Amino acid sequence: MSQSYNRGLIEDFSRWREFEAGMWAWIFHKFTGWVLIGYLFTHIAVLSTAIPAAGAEQAVLAAEADIYTQTIVTLEELLLVRVLEVGLLAVAVFHMLNGTRLLLVDLGIGLESQDKSFYASLILTGAITVASVPTFIAGAF
Ligand code: HEM
């Protein structure tokens, strides 16, 4: 015998106001996981197109005029790239902390304090990200 469920309107985007901690953790984990995949492919594309530097002459390498070094230096000169690096760190740290939390929950550890451990992941991510800013911005101006 078949049953039907009222799942609500798909268009009802205002439902996000009723989301609880677990739903935000699920959304953030998906978001950060796919941002990391996007970064991975971008990273490979940028570095692999700079590889011709491998065949550069010694004099060119010594003068740091090879394509690889120029690519990295040009990117790091852009403030936008520095800001994106801070964002990438935040995304990676959150995914690692929340992912570890999820693995522990899967093992039955911390089932009663899932909300608290999610908030702890957020706070720790924020603290590590803020602490990293001086390092990422150093030499940008
Ligand atoms: C310490 C490192 C990491 C840990 C502990 C971790 C943990 C996890 C866990 C537990 C899940 C499954 C979540 C669930 O039950 O729904 C997951 C999903 C995922 N992770 Fe990671 N992960 C890590 C690193 C990475 C990296 C480096 C990438 C990408 C390059 C990545 C990409 C993804 C993606 C795309 C998903 C699926 C998201 C979805 O539900 O659509 N993760 N991760």
TrEMBL record:
Record's subcellular location: Membrane
Keywords noted in UniProt: Heme, Iron, Membrane, Metal-binding, Transmembrane, Transmembrane helix
Annotated Pfam families: Sdh_cyt
A GO MF term: electron transfer activity
The organism's taxonomic lineage, starting at the top: Archaea, Methanobacteriati, Methanobacteriota, Stenosarchaea group, Halobacteria
TM stretches of this protein: 79-97, 118-140
Name listed for the protein in its UniProt record: Succinate dehydrogenase / fumarate reductase cytochrome b subunit
Domain of life where this protein originates: Archaea
GO biological process: tricarboxylic acid cycle
Cellular component, GO annotation: membrane
Chief location of this protein within or outside the cell: membrane
Signal peptide location: none
